[in-house]
Amino acid sequence: MIEPDLTLAASLFEQLHASSFDGVGITRDTYGAGEQRAHALMADNARRLGLEVRVDAALNLYLTLPGRRREKPVVMTGSHLDSVPRGGNYDGAAGVVAGLAVLAGWIREGAQPDRDVTVMGIRAEESAWFPVSYIGSTSAFGLLSPQALSSRRADTGRTLAEHIGELGGRPEALARGEAELRPESIDCFVELHIEQGPVLEGGGHALGVVTGICGSHRYRQAQIKGRYAHSGATPRSHRQDAVVALAALIERLQREWQDLEASGHELTLTFGQVNTDPMQADFSKVPGQVSFCVDIRSRNVDTLRLLDSLLLAAAHELEASHGVRFDWGPVSGSQPAVMDEPLQHALRGAALAAGVQPRQLPSGAGHDAATFSNRGVPTAMLFVRNANGSHNPEEAMAMDDFAAGVRCLGQVLAMRAGLAEPQDPAPI
């Protein structure tokens, strides 16, 4: 097996940190200066390696090592380069760095694959900035809805179309459904990513082979509207307390979640933001309004629908009992995805051949790999152990774990691209 260029990988991580450290964590804002610098860094290094570099209408980045038979479907890897505000340095970026490290090793040894191999730097995976899932990958397949281009970034208030256009993209082409990628032209997509939860760390596993990716159902701008009243002069029987109604909803849904898990459902439920109006709420007022968001995730569409129905039914009952009104606002979400079994076998076999015992696990977090899978592209994900979770500045991926993951990725890409003979897959 050709050794990947891990020195290049370490240098890229250092440069990414230097260009996106905000004083507390890492901020690579979607269609902003942070994400743009990361894409420029990867493109510059790819050119130095002699790779072909191109972008599409959404400014997704494609870094390609040409194969001997360019008419064959391309082998693809990669991930996103944006981050949440004050996140970590490895979320997303590790997958792009890993792909470049693999290709740099092949180039160093003068190896040429039978078919093209492309590392994709995907735009706008983190929906913290725009309330749309998988902007970059759906755009690449011509699937971004025209309405999504009118969505506004959380901090600037400006539209997605404006942000894309300012950086040189072509939002008008995206509105027409212009596609850069066709499923039949892609042999496979394999995404390396840090695990964003505690499973690998807790189980002592350096690597994880992902079985499937959860879909989501989200209310990002929900509100409960009651009535403001004097905190001392209004008895309980006359209150329309929005905060109490929300507390009752959260407590009720926690019980529903527990009951669904007990009956075999796999899901998560999060009320990630809860806010009263700072201009009206006061210690001496009964709160008349509260804003909140809801994030439901599962690998099963029926489970998503079931918990949503339970949520809405509970809210209807609380409207009657608490004298409040629920306003759910726009709904967003993403579809679950199943990972390709032969690719799972290949990743597991590559890990075992390298002396690493991987763990199988689902991904509760969303990833662009879901877009590829749901377009019919054979897709797989490899998780690298990461302490302290993700979406925070304390991400802590060990370089030895990353190196093991890159070697495993490189072996599978080489097999798919005709650079190495495939090994017999290990049974799952």
Automatic annotation (TrEMBL):
Protein keywords: Hydrolase, Metal-binding, Zinc
Cofactor: Zn(2+)
Keyword Ribosomal protein: no
Pfam family, one: Peptidase_M20
Binding positions for Zn(2+) 1 per the UniProt entry: 80, 91, 193
Residue runs in coiled coils: none
Gene Ontology molecular function: any one: metal ion binding
SUPFAM superfamilies for the chain: Bacterial exopeptidase dimerisation domain (SSF55031), Zn-dependent exopeptidases (SSF53187)
Domain of life, source organism: Bacteria
Residues that coordinate or bind Zn(2+) 2: 91, 126, 391
Cofactor, how bound (note): Binds 2 Zn(2+) ions per subunit.
Enzyme Commission no: 3.-.-.-
InterPro entries to which the protein is assigned, alphabetical: Amidase_Cbmase, Bact_exopeptidase_dim_dom, Peptidase_M20
NCBIfam families: hydantase, PRK12891.1
PANTHER family: ALLANTOATE AMIDOHYDROLASE, ALLANTOATE DEIMINASE-RELATED
Family as reported in the entry's similarity comment: Belongs to the peptidase M20 family.
Name of the protein in question: Putative hydrolase
